[in-house]
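Journal club prep, shared notes

We agreed each person brings one worked example of a sequence with its structure written out as tokens. Mine is IclR family transcriptional regulator. I'm keeping it raw so we can talk through how to read the token line rather than staring at a rendered picture. Sequence first:
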Amino acid sequence: MNNDVKSAGRILELLELLARASEPLTLRQIVAELDYPKSSAFNLLQTLVSRGYAVREEPERYRLNEACRSGPGWTSGRDAQLIAIAQPILQKLRDDTGESTFLGVPSPGRRVKTIAKCVSKQTIRYDSELAGSFPSYCSAIGRVLLAALEPRLIDEYLASERLVKHTDYTVVDRGEIRRIIAETRSLGYSISDQEVEIGGSGLAAPVHDLTGKVVGALNVAVVTARFAMNRDRIIDALLQCAREFDLRNGFKGEIPAIEQR
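Then the structure, token by token:
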């Protein structure tokens, strides 16, 4: 068997092991289970992490990316790069806020899909599957992505999107949505308070590529009962982590001015 075929077989065995595992595995556990040389296992893991198929957590533990298990599917290209950059930042943001964190990107029709997450350790917490897409007009991630568009494209989206009241708090007035989008652009972050689901509040901030283009948004999903008392602390942590993401992704330009809140 040539080396290429052997490496392909090992990659598949490693993916299968991570898929079976109920919790993240250490390098030592992986080496013991698969009987690979430590250097080979480490290199294979780094390849999977860099392509977005696996996630490295601190301390050095590895798990399958949830998008490959129950989400939108195998990742590649830009999404894989964003996931690799985002995962340690999502973990830090989760630990700093105590709440679940997500990375969202645009999907067809100006909708939103989440491609990575780090779930809160609290007993009562917000969680969501990495599957499908959801509307932009009422979600914090979606409003951040809409705020990066030209006014003409925002108008086209609002004219084509069916505005549904998911809860009594969902804003469906197009003029008010435009005002919220403008406020999001000014503040540099967005809030959706029980507009998608009762009991869940979301905060999001944009992340950029090296040219300064918005390519996604970091999101903190908060149990509403904890939202009001922790609002400013969560916003500060969110903005700091979004800036860290930008720097890791090569964007060193100025971030939007933050108004008094």
